[in-house]
Amino acid sequence: MGKNSAGRISILGLFAAIIILQNYVPIIGYLPVGPLNITTIHITVIIAAVVFGPVDGAIIGGIWGIADWIRALTVTSSVLGNIVMVNPLISVLPRILIGLIAGWLFTKLARNHAKLTVPLVISGVVGALVNTILVLGGIAFFFGKGSAVLAAINFQALTPYILFVAGTNGIPEAIAAGILVPLISLPLLKYTKLGKQRFNK
Asked: Which of 6, 68, 83, 184 has the lowest tally of Cβ within 10 angstroms?
């Protein structure tokens, strides 16, 4: 148990390092495609969730959320982003729930160890949509009627545009998760000790 626990913590630490790197290196964590800025960090969280389980997935998601929250407090990347993501209910909570829900859903769907592709696709798409829906919902709820933080910005007028752009990003992000999560997770679950530990719990 000691060796298994140490190995698990080491791998989780590796996932955490990847998350932090993705958060601060745009081309790795945020892929520019035309006018869109496609997030890829959620894919790392979902992979951790389906391989390790919902609790560890929530931890990795929380690390992303905290890194994003700190980035919003300390790095001036965009005026709107720095206002919106300062709220931890928008920057942190949705990322925790990505791992929790994607990991839980995969556990429920993956009854047969030999047939994992469809559960992985579904978990990947749902995990990505959780992030999009909760972040957009948070923006609409907290900033839809204006922002007391920066009165010069009319959030009531900008919110529909923000939601449209983020929603447009959400579709390719969900598609990317539905493709990449199975491609990366399937070998880990079928051919490594991680998969055996996942299904022998």
From this structure: 6
